[in-house]
Structure formats: structure tokens, C-alpha cells
Amino acid sequence: MSDSTHPSLARRTFVGGGVGLVLAGCAGSAEKWEVKPVAVREEGLVELELKDYPELITPGGMVALRPATLSKPVLVQRLEGDGVRVLSLRCTHLGCTVRWDGEAQELRCPCHGSRFDDRGTPTKGPAKQGLALYDSQLEGSVLRFWVREQ
Ligand code: FES
Q1: Which amino acid residue places its CA nearest to atom 3 of ligand 1?
Q2: DSSP letter string, 36-99
Q3: Which domains does the chain have, with CATH numbers?
Q4: Residue 32: what pLDDT?
Q5: Angle in degrees, CA 58, 120, 84, rounded to 5
């Protein structure tokens, strides 16, 4: 797993235990999987207002987004306090798009069956590496993260 770094801002990611995550409109059903497009600013910055993403207001919520400069979506998770986690949804096996399974509370790859927990750690192969984690930050009502193609 490779973490990106941003030179001007300290990383703020949740490092405590996992939380029960609920992806609005996406509870284990592939038909309901919704990926919303988002713009990317200079240096890979994506900036969101929480009011535009009500799923992210409450800890445990998550949303799948497709930054314009990436070929695969990311999963943005709201954690306790001001914690956020942004994971690449590019499977580390051969690059398929993994999806959140709300019933199993895990990420699953439809191509060869790899599974990952909510932190992106592989729990079942063939993938051996964790999902890429992007730097992220929540300040008040503004959520920022920085992306780059993996
Ligand atoms: S591409 Fe995901 S398991 Fe093979």
C-alpha cells in the first residue's frame, strides 16, 4: 500500500478501531452502487462541502466518488470525531474496481474474489496488498483529500 503525502498539510486520518460503515444507497447491492463525479484542483486536491454530501456528516457514513483525474473511484469514509479515510477502489490484484458490501461490511472485488476490510486491508486473496490510502483532512464543514493515479 502506498500513501500519498501532501507537503503543506498534516495528515488527519483515523487510526482507532473500525466503525460500522453504511454506504447510503449501496447496502450490498451492486445495482444501487452509486459513484458521484467530483472535480480535481491543482496538485490533486478534491474539496467537498459536507452539506453537499450528507452521508459524510455522521460518523459511519461513506460515499463513493470518482475524481476527474482518476480512472477508478475512491471511497470516502467518515470516522469518529473529525476523522476521515479515503481509499482507492482500485483492486491491488489486477486493478478491477472493488465495491462496498453493506451486508458483509467489507469491500469485495468482483473479478477474482479479493476482499478487504473497511481500512483497505486484504482479508482474502488473491490481492496481497492493501488498497491505497489518500491523505485527507476535515476542517469544520470542509473535507479535503489529495489524489494521484495509482
Ligand atoms: S482484480 Fe481484484 S481480485 Fe483480481
Answers
A1: 112
A2: EEE---GGGEEEEEGGG-GGGTSTTEEEEEEETT-SS-EEEEE-STT-EEEEE-B-TTT-PBPE
A3: 3-146 (2.102.10.10)
A4: 61
A5: 30
Q: pLDDT of 33-92, one tens digit each? A: 789 999 999 989 999 999 999 999 999 999 999 999 999 999 999 998 889 999 999 999
Closest by CA to 108, choosing from 123, 94, 128, 86, is 123
Task: Read off the pTM.
Answer: 0.79
Q: Burial code of 117-148, b = ≥16 C-beta within 10 A, e = fewer?
A: ebbbebeeeebeebbbbbbbbbeeeebbbbbe
Q: Distance from the CA of 114 to the center of ligand 1, in angstroms?
A: 6
What atom of ligand 1 comes closest to residue 96's alpha carbon? 1
> What number does the ligand 1 atom closest to the CA of 95 have?
1
